[in-house]
Write a structure and sequence with these properties.
Helices cover 47% and strands 19% of the residues. The protein is α+β, with helices and mostly antiparallel strands. α5 crosses α6. The mean pLDDT is 86. The N and C termini lie far apart (89 Å). Strands 9-10-11-12 form a four-stranded mixed sheet, with helices on both faces. A three-stranded antiparallel sheet has the order 1-3-2, with helices on both faces. The longest helix is centred in the last third of the chain and has 16 residues. The chain folds into three domains: 56 residues; 127 residues, no CATH class; 102 residues, Endonuclease, Chain A, CATH 3.40.960.
């Protein structure tokens, strides 16, 4: 095959892989060793990992890095564990090293860059164009290598997006499978109410309620035509949470006071916390909320 034709074919392959190709793919398009060496010297190819090359440019690109890791790990490899969860938008922060699973047992991890898991039982699919382990396996692997808090957040994110398939996740768990215990625990404590919060602060209030083991409130409901953030019906208690930029104008504060007056007229107690209290003084909020709940539940009240 001519050099020109080989270069055209490798460009087409690279275009599907965010500009990355493997040594094996260079051989597949019948590029000769002389061609490869010439392209390297000319800068058309640039080595980014052992036997993995950038084609045309080496500009930073997260998806290109993911593809490079998959190509390094070899055929049937897939992004997995926390890296897959981050790619799917289930956790906020990607791990320092890209995590990839492969059926090949002799592929070594590259410290600080790629963590390789030798796994033969991980089916894969394309997510955002990148080979990735199937969602149930990504969640199981995340549970095997992360904390309870991280896994619970990922489960709640699936629930909010309407993608929480309990049957599929349960099927991924099993005796001897690392992560099964933690994932099952997260599924058991998952609260559907989290899906109905309108802000990060309301979510934080629900998380704190679960952590403190107090009754879970109803979120974002209407009482006497007034929308409330959190409501404990048995205690006739309403909690409103204010963000850093919310409820600060004169008009908004007047509106809030009018709503509180309406709620009190219906026999409800209304308390209000802001972002600083929930973030920086969670213990004080805990004590105050418990006091309000106990007071409402006492015979005298």
């Amino acid at each position: 095959m001519s050099t020109h034709r080989a270069r055209e074919r490798i460009a087409r392959v690279a275009s599907r892989q965010h500009g990355r190709v493997s040594f094996a793919q260079l051989r597949w398009v019948e590029a000769s060793s002389a061609d490869s060496q010439r392209w390297l010297s000319q800068g058309y190819l640039a080595r980014v990992l052992p036997k993995v090359y950038a084609v045309g440019h080496t500009a930073p690109d997260r998806y290109a890095d993911l593809w490079a890791a998959v190509l390094y790990a070899g055929p049937e490899a897939a992004i997995s564990h926390a890296t897959a969860a981050h790619l799917r938008g289930l956790i906020d922060f990607a791990p320092t090293s890209i995590e990839v699973s492969t059926p090949r047992e002799k592929v070594r991890s590259l410290p600080g860059k790629i963590h390789v898991y030798a796994r033969r039982d991980r089916e894969r699919e394309k997510f955002d164009g990148v080979p990735t382990t199937l969602l149930p396996y990504a969640m199981l692997d995340l549970a095997a290598t992360s904390t309870d808090k991280v896994v619970s957040r990922a489960v709640r994110q699936l629930d909010r997006r309407g993608e929480l398939n309990l049957k599929a996740l349960d099927a991924a768990c099993g005796r001897g499978r690392r992560g099964s215990k933690r994932l099952r625990k997260a599924l058991q404590v998952a609260r559907p109410a989290i899906s109905y919060t309108n802000s990060e602060l309301e979510q934080l209030l629900l998380e704190l309620s679960q952590e403190w083991k107090i009754p879970e409130p109803r979120c974002n409901v209407y009482i006497a035509s007034v929308p409330v953030d959190a409501y404990w019906p048995a205690h006739k208690l309403v909690v409103e949470v204010d963000g850093a930029d919310d409820h600060t104008s004169v008009a908004q504060m007047r509106h809030d006071r009018a709503n509180e007056l309406t709620l009190r007229a219906h026999g409800l107690t209304v308390i209000r916390y802001d972002w600083l209290l929930l973030k920086a003084r969670a213990k004080a909020v805990h004590d105050d909320l418990l006091t309000q709940l106990r007071r409402a539940a006492s015979p005298a009240s």
